[in-house]
Design brief:
Ig-like domain-containing protein; globular; mainly beta; seven-stranded antiparallel sheet; 116 residues; 0% helix
Length: 116
């Protein structure tokens, strides 16, 4: 059975940023779940995307919106599955609005993480 790995859990997200990279098996399928339990601010919006790397230095997004989530503007849980496109995966987010804040936890599942 595959493990569930926390990609992000901690302080509320108030600015754009990224998770710690994790190593995953190339060519496998992973699921990413984002739980935004509290959202506040004026017109808050957070867009999450999975990025891929083979060296941990150069990161790339998939073409188009293939590995992106729709913007989160209210408390909710979203999940998507992705085909692994690099040996390293990270979650990046872009935040906008006036004093936005997102209490969020993000998980990776579907594969055994090779390293964090």
């Amino acid at each position: 059975m595959a493990d569930q790995t926390t990609l992000y859990s901690g302080n509320p997200i108030t600015a754009s940023g990224s998770s710690t990279p994790v190593a995953v098996p190339l060519g496998s399928t992973v699921a990413v779940t984002i739980n935004a339990t509290t959202v506040s601010g004026t017109t808050p919006s957070a867009t999450f995307e999975v990025q891929w790397s083979h060296d941990g230095v150069n990161w790339a997004s998939a073409d188009g919106t293939a590995d992106s989530f729709a913007a989160i503007t209210a408390a909710k849980s979203v999940a998507r599955s992705f085909t692994v496109k690099g040996t390293l995966l990270r979650l990046v987010w872009t935040v906008s609005g006036t004093t936005p804040s997102f209490t969020t936890t993000a998980y990776l599942s579907g594969v055994r993480v090779l390293s964090t």
